[in-house]
Amino acid sequence: MRIAAFVLSFIWLVNGELLEADQDASVPEDWILVERVGPLEEVELTFALKQQNVNQMEELLKLVSDPDSHQYGKHLSLEEVAALVQPSQLTEKVVQNWLQGHGVKNCHAVVTRDFLQCVMTVQVAEALLPGAKFHRYRRDSQTLLRSTSLYSVHEDVHQHLDFVGGVHRFPPKGKEISKGWEGARLSKLGYHLGVTPSVIRSRYNLTAKDVGTATNNSQAVAQFLEQYYHPADLAEFMSLFAGRFTHMSAVERVVGTQGGGKAGIEASLDVEYIMSSGANISTWVFTNPGRHESQEPFLQWMLLLSNMSAVPWVHTISYGDDEDSLSDAYMNRINNEFMKAGLRGISMLFASGDSGAGCRHLTKERNTFRPSFPASSPYVTTVGGTSFKNPFKLSYEVTDYISGGGFSNVFAMPDYQVGAVQAYLKSVQPLPPQTYFNTTGRAYPDLAALSDNYWVVTNRIPVPWVSGTSASTPVVGGILSLINDQRFLKGLPSLGFINPRLYKLQGKGLFDVSEGCHLSCLDDKVEGKGFCASPSWDPVTGWGTPNYPVFLKALMD
């Protein structure tokens, strides 16, 4: 009877979420099981401790981000954020006693004290989380330690944790961003204009004088999927494409450890286009920080932000996963981390994805659209993609059919966008069937930029036809950095979490994109078509693409 009572006193978790203990966590098909991990091998687990004052944090974020609030722009320091959200003394004591009771001593807390990272042997980890069984998995050259079986956390402890990182989540597979590479290279589109920094600057009305000059400005890209940039590629890119405006040809700071081997197209793209759009602005690269097999690179980046008092003002991230592959508990906690960043005056930009509305096959006869996270987070700015109407000259923009967009199935529509989204739902006909999407969910993207046929230098070779919202996101990030630059020169605070202000502008300073639809499920009900662009906001290109001088003027108070 004592054993039965002990078992009943445990709560089963997967990805930090309460679940029925009736199935194992799934392994993505691109990961191959290699071996059971030996008991003395080490793992590094991340414990997300319950935060205090989360509702107060959300209300405060609304105030500092609303241009009509007297608290607008009054951002907090990291230390002030820590004082607001750090766990209660009881939470810290319970978790620390639990860890120390299992002999776990090698732990490090972040400044905000709401994350603990601990190194321990597999034997200890499996004793700490009964049910966990760690195995090594391989995908291409990457290896990972994960447990796919259900594990348990004692009920006295579970109420003090949001999730445990490094146990279940597998990183998403990096997407192919050179859209149609072979077909495009072999086609007769050899005279296609292609997108370069000069094309971006011409289309969005940036002059040679629109470069950074403020000494306290900075911007960053973050890379998680074993992608690295090469400094020589960046220098070559700037030499080829940035001769008409003042720019920097080197990254100011790399946070983490750059891997060896070939440069990745996505990493090259991110760095080259944030630094040519946000020209002459100090740029950081956050990269896989000495990744251990059990670490989650995205989570590592979030922890870094909670541990650095001085970080860049704009971050652009081309990373996402299907909402339905992640637990609500995990996503809600990541949202809290985005709120913490917004309170500090940091702008977080995420690519909307390259699968249009997406498609999830529920049964043989029923599909739904498939939103992506963090694109669907109410606390980040999500960037969609466009193409030139006429690919042979600087023309107006239409939807890029891959541009990610839609409605969250997890997060409610935030107040700042209700009017715009409801206007779209009422005015656009026909809409996809309502069984395919959640009309009350957070809608995205928020704005867009060109995402089709970019030139990139990677491994010292100029490569054309690179496409995806991985391209549009650093472009928008660089433009927001230029606006921050002008604000700093006038003694104004950073833009921070821009969405409430963006929606109040109702498209002012943006080129409206009102042509084209993006892709979705290939079935007899929607026939591959998702949502379509329309005048004003839409769930394909948001409010549209930047018209820099007008956008700047609208954001300069």
Describe the structure.
This protein has 16 helices and 30 strands. The protein has 557 residues and is an alpha+beta fold. α2 crosses α12, α9 crosses α10 and α10 packs parallel to α14. The N terminus is likely disordered. This is Tripeptidyl-peptidase 1. Its cofactor is Ca(2+). It holds the Pfam family Peptidase_S8.
Blueprint of the fold:
Elements (H helix, E strand, L loop, with lengths): L1 H7 L1 E5 L2 E2 L13 E5 L5 E8 L4 H12 L12 H8 L3 H13 L4 E4 L5 E7 H7 L5 E6 L2 E6 L3 E4 H4 L2 E5 L15 H6 L10 H7 L15 E4 L8 H11 L11 E3 L9 H13 L5 E4 L10 H9 L8 E4 L3 E2 L5 H16 L3 E5 L8 E2 L5 E2 L3 E2 L7 E8 L8 E3 L6 E7 L5 H10 L13 E4 L2 E4 L3 E5 L2 E6 L2 H21 L9 H7 L4 E2 L5 E3 L9 E4 L12 E2 L1 H7 L3
Parallel strand pairs: 11-13, 11-14, 12-13, 14-16, 16-20, 20-24
Antiparallel strand pairs: 1-2, 1-9, 3-7, 4-6, 4-10, 5-6, 7-8, 15-19, 17-18, 20-21, 22-23, 25-26, 27-30, 28-29
Organism: Cirrhinus molitorella
Pfam families: Peptidase_S8, Pro-kuma_activ
Catalytic activity: Release of an N-terminal tripeptide from a polypeptide, but also has endopeptidase activity
